[in-house]
Amino acid sequence: MTQTQDMIHEDALPGHESRLEPKPEWEPRYPGSGRLAGKTAVITGADSGIGRAVAALFAREGADVAIVYLCEHEDAERTAEIVRAEGQRALTLAGDLGEKDFCDDAVARIVEQFGRIDILVNNSGEQHPDSDITDISEEQLRRTFQTNIFGMFFLTQAVRPHLKQEAAIINCTSVTMYQGSKELLDYSSTKGAITAFTRSLSENLVGDGIRVNAVAPGPIWTPLNPSGGASPEKLAHFGENTPMGRPGQPNEVAPSFLFLACADSSYMSGQVLHPNGGTIVNG
Known about the structure:
Layout: E1 40-44, H1 49-60, E2 64-69, H2 73-85, E3 90-94, H3 100-114, E4 119-122, H4 138-159, E5 168-172, H5 175-179, H6 185-205, E6 211-215, H7 225-229, H8 232-236, H9 250-261, E7 272-273
Parallel strand pairs: 1-2, 1-4, 2-3, 4-5, 5-6, 6-7
């Protein structure tokens, strides 16, 4: 039995990383160099998967981290422990990003706790596989857009007054925006919106010294897919269609977020990085 065939399948999103086998690899691969020293980062979906790996790496580079998540409290607390083990402060905030009031309240608590916001990582998202467009219910369509793009707008609106020159916003789009996905019509549509949002927001904010970029991961082993975000048939061969022939790990994606968050990318805005296993997307 292959590793992908041995992956467990849960029934409800977003899914518990603590129950996932094999465990995603979140650990930073290198010692820190202080590239985010003294900064505060807000990371959505930071309880697990890519968000956890980004939180761990940002903390290693010196940032305090606000962990925004939906309802996986055990996973979120584990991420907070990882951040604190790196010598940084962590704050966990549970709620629905699709609700504007939650976004406003969360940002107020973050500023009260840390006094500043320097980096916003809009990473959270949800997906639901459907083989036929007529199978997508109105409720699902609204929910996917509410989480993936409305929530990104709401949180960015709440954070904007606190961002100063040299701040950075990094949005998580997807390879599905560039390739399409016959099973993820609503999800891939939101990712197209996120890419357009990234480029437009960059034009809007770059004059104020705030950079906006995005990361477009390929198939990454996180709780999202085995928790209902991919069909069993697709999950059995997850990542095999990439040139590298395997799914990626969260800690293979996190360095793209770090690069876009720190001064290493000071001459980049409105751009998208593609940690996707070698797939050429010309985007």
